[in-house]
Design a protein that fits this description.
The structure is a homodimer of 329-residue chains. The first copy, chain A, has 12 helices and 12 strands. Chain A has 329 residues and is an alpha/beta fold. In chain A, the strands form 2 sheets. A 6-stranded parallel beta sheet of chain A has the order 2-1-3-4-5-11, with helices on both faces. A 6-stranded mixed beta sheet of chain A has the order 7-6-8-9-10-12, sandwiched between helices. In chain A, α9 links the parallel β6 and β7. In chain A, α10 crosses α11. The longest helix of chain A has 16 residues. The first copy, chain A, is elongated, with a radius of gyration of 26 Å. The first copy, chain A, starts with a helix and ends in an 11-residue tail after the last strand. Chain A binds a DNA duplex (16 and 16 nucleotides) through α2 and α4. Chains A, B: Keywords: DNA-binding, Transcription, Transcription regulation. Chains A, B: Pfam families: LacI (PF00356), Peripla_BP_3 (PF13377).
Chain lengths: 329, 329
DNA sequence: ATGAAAGCGCTAACAT
DNA sequence: ATGTTAGCGCTTTCAT
């Protein structure tokens, strides 16, 4: 290509990278030759020598790219990083701790400029060596364990507390909790926020019906059925996650209680307003989480050396009917 | 690192790549040094020299990574390619033709081993140079225009036809069509299949109420309201896409017609069975589309030279109630 | 304004 | 079984 244009290889490099110090005439010669050959810069070869070795790519580890919440985060990150010419490798973890480390390793082998990840393994201490060698790292949804790094999370406890407060202000005193696996930090936070808020209102917390380790719709449905058909059933239910909410909705419908027992779910979902009744939720803001995470990562890539911090994105109570059902008089 | 282990650089390469011809003793020496330095192979540097220049990465262009249908495809592709150690760059197009070409260019600069894309631009002729230089290429959801390459698509016309047949067998003769933008190939196919099937049953097709270019919930809702409040309203509606289906559902509910007018939507969605009535749909199979596309891409990467082909993934009618509503006697 | 030389981290080809 | 040399496509550094 340098040959075709009749110039030195460095001049080609100058033109392609829009560096100064090239006469307009040579510029055109090079540009022509480049078009003729359909020339395309090889980014990887470039980063091999470039100062800082930037590859303009980052790795993103999510629960699953097919999960709508992750999809929104993915999209926000893509938008924020794409504006800087950075491409995103995304991978799904499926709650498998071994995958987490394997994928991190694979991405590091590709020399990504940084990593954004939803931690699932019991500890993230394994990235300490890389992180201290200046690998930019931002955690999302959950804080890392065994190390310190930036994190962007939803206010899980506060959101759950606002659900409890809302139900209590509606007159409920018998509130039940349906929760996800207790080894997931966010699930524990949500329970804590919920239970503590109930206590704050002077309602005894030791007898709150709590069913946990519900990780899919069916187990949640069964747990809700059990709860609702037991003696002294709850007049309001809080579910900690979408699939659990769906299970609770099914149980309520089966028992004909959809309009008699209150329900608030953590996390918003499509068509929630089209249900009967509309489903009141604590909505998270995945676009904001993704955007903030991308911005923090860029700041770190650009050399920000502040001590690591956790950024909290507020959740939002959206009233749609199910959470406003009153207890029977 | 070769120095630390006290061996030649090539021996290190042999150990890392599990090549034969290294004594167990030296192997251990190298492995130890590698652990001490936290050594990590640089894939990019490797592919620079490796035969075939494989980077073990591919590019994926989707309408949007945040759209559930795309998410499922993304996931299936990730699973199929991940098994071969291939990482996926995903990008969102937002129906913007200029983005399509820009992202393809960006991915080519990263020397991806292949590309899987949902075409949106009017023509894909711009990739002909690369494709004929052996860039593996598979289109999904829509076939390319202006060039020939493998494609994996849903049987749009047949799926829409099965919806029409189902409604007609339920006794309907006045069927309406609510469709997406007519510049989208799949939308046109769905209309064609729907209309042709109606004709096949001897019902005049010239008077079918057709409303098109509905690209979001609100425009679909308004179109459906108009249709349903006009003279001689349809007794059954077919909607060509999720957002359009949602709009139609809202209109039916507003008019109190949810249980009087039949509805079949193209594309399945979460909670469709929880609606009142459950929504009958023509379900696509994004996991199969993604899996097949990934398999075809791998075959091409592995040197398959067959002439390009279009693979059709069948859709499936799922009865849930709304599509089984009978016309008024 | 332009170019030559060195070298990024690796693998291929060829010694030894 | 192990090492040496060259070179992938680029950017850096330093001449000219």
């Amino acid at each position: 290509m340098a040959a075709l244009a009749g110039v030195g290889i460095k001049t080609v490099s100058r033109v392609i990278n829009d560096e100064p110090g090239v006469s307009e005439a040579t510029r055109q010669k090079v540009l022509n030759a480049s078009r003729q050959l359909n020339y395309q810069l090889d980014m990887a070869a470039g980063s091999l020598r470039r100062a800082g070795r930037r590859t303009l790519s980052v790795g993103l580890l999510l629960p699953s790219v097919s999960n709508p919440f992750s999809g929104e985060i993915n999209r926000a990150i893509e938008d924020a990083l794409g504006a800087r010419g950075i491409a995103v490798f995304a991978a799904s973890l499926d709650d498998d701790p071994r995958r987490e480390q394997a994928i991190v390793t694979a991405f590091l082998g590709r020399r990504v400029d940084g990593l954004i990840l939803t931690p699932i393994a019991r500890s993230q201490a394994y990235v300490i060596p890389e992180h201290s060698r200046d690998l930019p790292l931002v955690f999302i949804d959950r804080e890392p364990v065994g190390m310190e790094a930036d994190a962007v999370v939803t206010d899980n406890a506060a959101g759950a507390a606002s659900a409890a407060a809302h139900l209590i202000s509606g007159g409920h005193t018998r509130l039940a909790y349906l929760g996800d696996r207790t080894d997931i930090q966010t699930a524990r936070e949500r329970r804590r926020g919920f239970v503590e808020e109930i206590g704050r209102h002077g309602i005894p917390t030791s007898t709150i019906p709590i069913r946990e380790n519900l990780h899919n719709e069916e187990s949640a449905r069964l747990a809700a059925l059990e709860l609702l058909t037991a003696e002294d059933p709850p007049t309001a239910i809080f579910s900690s996650q979408n699939l659990v909410t769906f299970g609770a909705m099914r149980a309520l419908r089966e028992l004909g209680l959809s309009n008699r027992v209150a329900l608030i779910g953590f996390d918003d979902f499509t068509l929630a307003d089209m249900m009967d009744p509309g489903v009141t939720v604590i909505a998270q803001h995945p676009e904001q989480i993704g955007k903030l995470a991308a911005e923090r990562l860029l700041a770190r890539i650009d050399g920000d050396e502040q001590p690591p911090r956790t950024y909290v994105v507020p959740s939002e109570l959206i009233q749609r009917g199910s959470g406003e059902i009153r207890p029977p008089a």
